[in-house]
Write a structure and sequence with these properties.
Blueprint lengths: L11 H15 L5 E6 L2 H16 L4 E6 L4 H10 L4 E4 L6 H6 L4 E4 L17 E4 L14 H12 L7 H10 L9 H12 L4 E3 L9 H6 L13 H10 L13 H17 L4 H4 L6 E4 L4 E2 H13 L3 H8 L5 H26 L2 E2 L4 E5 L5 H11 L7 E5 L6 E6 L2 H4 L5 H11 L3 E4 L3 E6 L4 H15 L9
Parallel strand pairs: 1-2, 1-3, 3-4, 4-5, 10-11
Antiparallel strand pairs: 6-7, 7-8, 9-10, 11-12, 12-14, 13-14
Length: about 475
């Protein structure tokens, strides 16, 4: 076991990038603006960063971004008369940060043009991206685990940022199939330090078993999720009391329920890796008295209901934030269930090598696309979801599967290329990406994205499903 985080990765660029970022931050005491993406990974990243800055005595101003917002970032920098820490975004805007007259630290895991070789940057800009040192930012490290690791480089006391690192990774779905790569190294170190505990249990949360199953979105159960009467009948058929709290089930009852639910998912043609999310390793956070996935859902709900600051306040121990986060999570869950049921009942539209649908829930659309891909749609083609045409500009999200990536899928390139063709901007990961495009350009974007994806995916893409 390495004695410290400097030994976790052999590539020298790993310690060089972290040391440069560490030196810049510690060399500039005072107020820092933290810019972050509004999803669970971004909120968790900002949470870890703000906690670490508070320990240093640095006041902070945290500002969330919704989608790809180059113009807003430029305006924020123009209004910021001091240093900036950017988390879970920023790889595509290094030119803007180079022109900012104060120190800028960018911690991002997204693919950028020219990766893994960043462009030359002035001394006052530090860019840390796991792609640069051979770590996959799509599967082995997200922004929150990157930020957690950065705070440990600042001070080992920040190992207790583990809850925020882990919850963000779950929000970015890097827990599917178990943590791997540098994520796994960090998690094992946190377990060794007793800030995380590995436990067994089902991914069902709620005061009553029926409530947990009705409200389940990950996994999403066809003809059960969002349907109270169907759930009551299902549980009674297993001789399980719908009013029982999930935590009170015996080992035998838990096993019986798990087997029945996994059989239900298999019958719905859900892939094994998503069936296994029901009962794979879970992570208990002793300091908070809750499961890491529960924390992730609170952060996701806060962000997707346009109150990301509540998620950050939760990390800082604000006494009223937990109740607000719970309320936001319930609104988010209700919206996701409504959207997934809409896809389940109405279906989606298909082109040559992609599927797409519209959602009236702009901030929920990405989650709806990802969960639809996992639990409702055939696993052969990626799916795109668009905000309704009344939105100006149009925001969109694209989601695929890792098995599609292994056969050539690169949604980051597809979104970036298709968005640029219509005067917009896009990017992200190969398996999950997004874009912002001008109103009225959806059909042109789709045609261009379909063309790009046709060059990536093999003929008869359904053959690798």
């Amino acid at each position: 076991m390495p004695s410290g985080p400097d030994g976790f990765v052999r590539d020298p660029r790993y310690t060089q990038e972290f040391e440069r970022a560490r030196r810049l931050l510690l060399g500039r005491p005072g107020r820092w603006r933290v810019i972050y993406h509004y999803d669970a990974d971004g909120i968790a990243s900002a949470s870890a960063a703000v906690r670490a800055l508070a320990r240093l005595g640095y006041p902070t101003q945290a500002t969330a971004l919704v989608g790809v917002e180059r113009e807003r970032v430029a305006a924020l920098l123009a209004r910021t008369g001091g240093p900036v820490l950017v988390v879970d975004t920023g790889s595509s805007w290094l030119d803007l940060f180079a022109r900012h007259p104060h120190p800028v630290v960018v911690l991002d895991h997204h693919k950028y043009p020219g990766a893994p070789t960043p462009p030359p940057l002035p001394e006052h800009v530090a860019f840390v991206n796991p792609l640069d040192w051979g770590v996959d930012g799509m599967r082995e490290m997200c922004a929150s685990t990157l930020t957690w690791l950065y705070t440990v480089f600042l001070d080992p006391v920040n190992w207790d940022n583990a809850p925020w690192g882990l919850s963000g990774a779950i929000g970015d779905r890097q827990h599917v199939g178990g943590f791997r790569g540098l994520n796994a190294v960090l998690v094992e170190e946190a377990v060794r330090r007793s800030v995380l505990v590995r436990r067994h249990g089902l991914a069902l949360f709620g005061p009553r078993l029926a409530d947990a199953l009705v409200g389940s979105v990950d996994p999403f159960f066809r003809k059960l999720s969002g349907r109270p009467e169907a759930v009551e009948t299902f549980l009674q058929g297993l001789s399980l009391d719908p009013a029982r709290p999930p935590a009170e089930l015996s080992t035998e009852e838990t096993g019986r329920l798990s087997a029945a639910l996994k059989a239900h998912l298999a019958k719905s043609h859900v892939l094994p890796e998503f069936q296994d999310l029901l009962d794979q390793d879970r992570w208990w956070i002793p300091s908070l008295g809750r499961d890491a996935e529960e924390l992730s859902n609170l952060q996701t709900g806060s962000g997707r209901t346009r109150t990301p600051g509540v998620g950050v306040a939760l990390a800082l121990g604000d006494p009223g934030s937990f109740g607000r986060a719970q309320a936001a999570e319930q609104v988010w869950r209700t919206g996701i269930l409504k959207g997934l049921r809409r896809v389940e009942e109405e279906g989606v539209r298909s082109m040559r090598v992609l599927r797409w649908f519209e959602s009236p829930d702009t901030t929920l659309a990405g989650t709806q696309a990802g969960l639809s891909m996992n639990y409702l749609l055939p696993p052969d083609l990626p799916v795109f979801v668009f905000s309704e045409q009344k939105e100006e500009p149009i925001k969109l999200s694209a989601r695929g599967l890792l098995r599609q990536v292994e056969h050539g899928l690169d949604l980051s390139t597809a979104c970036r290329t298709a968005a640029a063709a219509v005067g917009g901007e896009g990017g992200g990961h190969r398996v999950a990406s997004g874009a912002t495009i001008p109103a009225g350009t959806r059909d042109r974007f789709l045609n261009e994205a379909d063309r790009v994806l046709a060059g990536q995916l093999p003929e008869g893409a359904g053959g690798f499903a």
